[in-house]
Design goal:
Length: 388
């Protein structure tokens, strides 16, 4: 049984009213259409998006899909364009889904497939809870009996050949205003089954729907990830430091020598930033703050660490632990370790108990042993959800 899914994303979102069509807006850090595509991709081998190719490719990167095809003026036109593009793939079943519906509740697709054994079409639907009124010119003209009414959702599932035929016939007849696909089968007198829909299957339509969707999205599990960082800075030649201070882990240390570097050369902070970027798999400090940029000359490295901490927050994660080891013969670090821990905890906005600073010498061996520079290594543990 070959199953394809159409993801219709060619609407302009006029009721939502944003500059960007609503299906490309970000929901919980991920484009709305990407949530929908992921939910479908778990069930189908063929995913056919309909809409602006550049926007769709950007949003669906890494999710296998067929090349997007342009949509039409109405949703019905867009679905027909997608169905015609699927013809060469000859699917048995097609699921038609709104890109503006990021949540497909568990069980919906399985129930639709089962229902297709007895009917050429099946849709998820939910009962109507509110009393319904017909209104004209701001006045109620009638109360509509709601007992036999349901609200239709997507994905809607069909025998591919039947839906294709229904769309071609409707197009030939010049009708293009159906807002769902079941309507075309209904018009042709074909059976469409109903399976239970879900209240979380919200179609992003109005701005306030974004908040409802945020609440309805299942939370992704946070996983522990460990990153490591390493950095070295050379001491400036004796007597050339001028008034440049020696700054280690955000603390100015009285010392007769200072470190060379484009920024303030805080080797401990740089190693810790790289550990955090590493835990997030987001490159390194040089990617975020290129040394070629004049803006970072003599920069206070505190802003680099604040940025790294901000990236954890932006990913919805937390820093559970950071450990920095400074490697040098001099200055002696231990007298300053407590102040360094306090400063790092402040910059990272975590309790001091989550931050460790320690030091070692290299027994006078190597460049640190000869006092040519200071090295630092760091490890950071973060809890963060897998990237989308
Ligand atoms: N859609 C489409 N092509 C159209 C119109 C709509 O592919 N010409 C898609 C939308 O992108 C959406 C789904 O059909 O994923 C449901 O339509 P709707 O919620 O009405 O979205 P919009 O038409 O974009 O919104 P509005 O009606 O407020 O303009
Ligand atoms: Mg519309």
């Amino acid at each position: 049984m070959r199953i394809a899914a159409l993801l219709v994303a060619a609407g302009s979102g006029s009721r939502f009213g944003a500059d960007t069509p609503k299906q490309f807006l970000t929901l919980a850090g991920t484009p709305v259409i990407r949530h929908a595509a992921r939910a479908l991709a778990a069930h189908v081998a063929l995913l056919q998006p309909v809409g602006d190719a550049a926007a769709i490719e950007a949003a669906l990167e890494g999710i296998p899909h067929l090349p997007p095809v342009p949509g039409g003026v109405t949703r019905q036109d867009s679905v027909r364009a997608g169905l015609e593009a699927l013809v060469p793939h000859a699917p048995d079943i097609v699921l038609v889904h709104d890109a503006a519906r990021p949540i497909i509740p568990d069980g919906t697709i399985a129930a639709l497939r089962t229902a297709l054994a007895d009917a050429p079409g099946a849709i998820p639907a939910v009962p109507v809870a509110d009393t319904l009124k017909r209104v004209a010119a701001g006045r109620i003209t009638a109360t509509v009996a709601r007992a036999d009414l349901v609200r239709a959702q997507t994905p809607q599932a069909f025998h591919f050949a039947v839906l294709l035929e229904a769309h071609r016939a409707a197009h030939a007849a010049g009708a293009a205003t159906a807002t769902d696909d079941a309507a075309l089968l209904e018009a042709a007198g074909l059976a469409v089954a109903i399976v239970p829909g879900g209240e979380d299957n919200i179609k992003l339509t109005w701005p306030e729907d974004l908040m409802r969707l945020e609440r309805a999205l299942p939370a992704l599990p946070l996983l522990p990830r460990v990153g490591t960082g390493f950095d070295v800075h050379a001491f400036l030649p004796a007597g050339t430091a001028g008034d440049r201070p020696l700054v280690l882990c955000g603390v100015t240390i009285p010392h007769e020598r200072a470190l060379a570097g484009h920024s303030d050369a805080d080797v401990g902070l740089h190693a810790l930033c790289d550990a955090i970027y590493g835990a997030l798999a987001e490159g390194d400090i040089g990617r975020h703050f290129p040394p070629s940029e004049a803006a970072w000359k003599d920069a206070d490295s505190a802003r680099f660490l604040r940025h790294a901490a901000g990236r954890i927050a932006a990913r919805g994660g937390i820093l559970t632990h950071a450990d920095v080891t400074l490697i040098c013969e001099r200055p002696k670090i231990t007298p300053h370790a407590a102040a360094m821990r306090a400063r790092l905890a402040e910059l990272l906005d975590v309790p001091i108990g989550r931050v460790s600073v320690k030091a070692t010498t290299t027994e006078r061996l190597g460049f640190t042993g000869r006092g040519e520079g200071i090295a630092a290594q760091a490890a950071a543990t973060v809890m963060v959800a897998d990237p989308n």
